[in-house]
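Hey,
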Amino acid sequence: MTYIIPLAIIGVFLIIYLVYMKFYFPKMQEKYKQLDNEFNQEWNQDKEAVLSEYLDDPNKFRLISEVTEGEKIIGMLSSKGLPDSLKNKAKEAVIGAITFTSKVDMSLYYLVATDKALHYTGFDGEKCFIHEVFDYNQISERNMTKNKFSFLYKNEKISFPIEEMLIGYPRFNIHEFSQTPTSNNRATNYFVREYLAYEITNNLEYKNAKSSIPKMNTDMLKASKEQVKDTKIRTYFIEQFKQKLGIRG
């Protein structure tokens, strides 16, 4: 008897899995393939127009286009934060959320490869507060892992923590929900700032696209052409960044 219930549970999950794979998964694949074909058709017809849609829209990557001042943007990566070599320089400009006694960086950072140079940019949701430019001719020993991109620049090693995906847009909002005292002793002046409505992707364009589509998720049944386009464009920018910097894999 002790084995009957576990076996029954396993049997139920097995039946659910088989039904899912037979009826739902093929529908997901079919819909994604259709949307993928629609994007590829649009891409092949006018690739530059599709890219311009993202690079010229103020609510997409227009802020990055403005910072790079007309240089042709080839590819991008998201950075998780400031490298150690730039922390002191940007210390006062970084958007911070005071959580007890520690500081949380709420900004978004991008490594941008253009036809002229490599740019490192940081955005507070409305403007660029840090912008460093690296001459390609001075960059050597490039290396990229899952979490880090590093190189030698004028004989100095610089390392950037990076994201696997291209995250959000440089224009976004931070909503501060409330401020609550963390101690009865107000003299300590410690407060918690709760960003309950905060999303690093709190940008209407990005929220509509949701950035990515899981390969095996029922959300694919609700996937839109815009979602597929958003995923493809972000993947394209990452691949082009690697290609421009001569990084394999």
